[in-house]
């Protein structure tokens, strides 16, 4: 009995730390409990690199290339709008009315830009993390990616952060510091590090009422910061799933030559705090993987289809590149003979307030559909049919992925 008592006492610091972390998460996320990370795979790994039945190996946040999933969903930029984010997931049947994972074995890729333009950035991060863990238990996989706004915020560039966005991080700092104080009550736990260490107490030209939010945002998101470490180190910068290549902005030949896995590792190492304060060079500038717009112009003639063709030819099995970053006012569309698929529909209230749409690819790319909440599809689909084969893009806010398929089969409208 005495031995059991001693074991319980030895475990107390770890139990207290876990309780405090759960308390902080619950307070910051708006009331979410993060499920435990699965300790065993929901199914055995695939026996070949490209299984024919659509079965995938267990989710791996550090993996760059995945075999063809039985159902693949792509979701564009979310920009701090929690409700629109949930609408996008519900549109694809990925979450139920209680925001629990209902997507089964689906693989989902969210192409980045959770940050900026809205006030629910942390809440979205927590929702995505919860769904990742729930999906893994169901044999599914949710992959999150870095957009240019993730890179900007880790570097301390808050040009597009909103007042509510700063307030959300200010509240995070309050709860996080309270949790650290609670941990100091236990002699068996090390004293927590001051999250504001090295951050100036004032900035030139910054008003006093904005200072706390800015300092909190820096503390949370700088390389090695608590929020960066907890969430963003699991993001990928480039993903290949079956014959689809995902990237926030776009890839150029020099990016592929540099190495997709290499870029994912280096960006992750930078965010974790082991590679200095500045992002890798291929994440900065107009030709960066998270900033590129060569394949995203609304007018097809302005897009560099020849470079895209070359890039895809250098990635084994690649058939298309799926990108966010550039708002498509007419909705999800494809150009360059459907090799460039643009899925940022500006759904966030702070970034266009568009109607949510997601891309669905079933099986070995035999069926590609746009799942949309836009009622104009029903109204205009017959009159639009004749133009989709030649245009490859939308007219008057409706359309499909060019010649990938016919409209009634391609587009599914959900309320």
Largest sheet descriptor: 6 strands, mixed
CATH architecture of the largest domain: 4-Layer Sandwich
List the uncertain runs: 40-56, 378-411
Distance between the termini: 61 Å
The helix content, as a percent range, equals 25-40%
Mean pLDDT: 85
Organism: Linum trigynum
InterPro entries: Calcineurin-like_PHP, Metallo-depent_PP-like, MPP_Shelphs
Domain Calcineurin-like phosphoesterase: 71-191
Region (Disordered): 35-63
Topology:
Blueprint: H1 2-29, E1 65-66, E2 71-75, H2 82-91, E3 107-110, H3 121-137, E4 141-144, H4 148-154, H5 163-183, H6 208-221, H7 226-230, E5 238-241, E6 244-247, H8 253-258, H9 260-272, H10 305-313, E7 320-323, E8 333-335, E9 340-342, E10 357-362, E11 367-372, H11 376-391, H12 407-410, E12 411-413
Parallel strand pairs: 1-5, 2-3, 3-4, 6-7, 7-9, 11-12
Antiparallel strand pairs: 2-10, 5-6, 8-9, 10-11
Describe it for me?
With 415 residues, the chain is of the alpha/beta class. The chain has helices at 2-29, 82-91, 121-137, 148-154, 163-183, 208-221, 226-230, 253-258, 260-272, 305-313, 376-391, 407-410; strands spanning 65-66, 71-75, 107-110, 141-144, 238-241, 244-247, 320-323, 333-335, 340-342, 357-362, 367-372, 411-413. It has a 6-stranded mixed sheet with strand order 1-5-6-7-9-8. Strands 4-3-2-10-11-12 form a 6-stranded mixed sheet. Strand 5 (238-241) and strand 6 (244-247) form a beta hairpin.
């Amino acid at each position: 009995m005495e031995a059991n008592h001693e074991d319980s006492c030895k475990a107390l610091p770890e139990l207290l730390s876990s309780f405090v972390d759960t308390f902080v998460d619950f307070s910051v996320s708006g009331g979410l409990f993060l499920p435990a990370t699965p300790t065993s795979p929901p199914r055995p790994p695939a026996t070949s690199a490209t299984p024919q039945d659509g079965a995938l190996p267990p989710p791996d946040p550090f993996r760059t290339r995945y075999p063809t999933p039985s159902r693949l969903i792509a979701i564009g930029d979310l920009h701090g709008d929690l409700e629109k984010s949930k609408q996008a997931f519900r549109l694809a049947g990925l979450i139920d009315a209680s925001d629990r994972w209902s997507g089964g074995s689906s693989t989902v890729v969210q192409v980045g830009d959770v940050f900026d333009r809205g006030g629910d950035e942390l809440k979205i991060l927590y929702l995505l993390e919860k769904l990742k863990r729930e999906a893994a238990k169901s044999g599914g996989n949710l992959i999150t990616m870095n957009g240019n706004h993730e890179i900007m915020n880790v570097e301390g560039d808050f040009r597009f952060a909103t007042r509510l966005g700063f307030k959300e991080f200010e509240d995070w700092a309050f709860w996080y510091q309270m949790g650290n104080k609670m941990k100091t009550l236990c002699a068996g736990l090390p004293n927590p590090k001051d999250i504001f260490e090295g951050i100036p107490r004032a900035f030139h030209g910054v008003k006093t009422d904005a200072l706390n939010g800015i300092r909190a945002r820096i503390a949370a998101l700088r390389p090695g910061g608590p929020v960066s470490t907890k969430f963003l180190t699991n993001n990928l910068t480039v993903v290949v799933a079956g014959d689809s290549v995902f990237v926030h902005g776009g890839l150029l030949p020099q990016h592929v030559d540099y190495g997709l896995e290499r870029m994912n590792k280096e960006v992750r190492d930078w965010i974790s705090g082991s590679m200095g304060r500045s992002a890798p060079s291929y994440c900065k500038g107009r030709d960066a993987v998270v900033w590129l717009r060569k394949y995203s112009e609304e007018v097809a003639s302005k897009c560099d289809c020849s470079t895209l063709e070359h890039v895809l030819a250098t990635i084994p099995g690649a058939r298309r590149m799926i990108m966010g970053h550039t708002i498509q006012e007419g909705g999800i569309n494809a150009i360059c003979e459907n090799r460039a698929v643009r899925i940022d529909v500006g759904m966030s209230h702070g970034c266009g307030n568009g109607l949510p749409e997601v891309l669905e690819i079933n099986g070995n790319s035999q069926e590609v559909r746009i799942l949309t909440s836009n009622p104009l599809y029903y109204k205009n689909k017959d009159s639009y049919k004749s133009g989709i084969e030649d245009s490859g893009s939308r007219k008057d806010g409706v359309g499909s992925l060019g010649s990938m398929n016919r409209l009634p089969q391609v587009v599914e409208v959900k309320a």
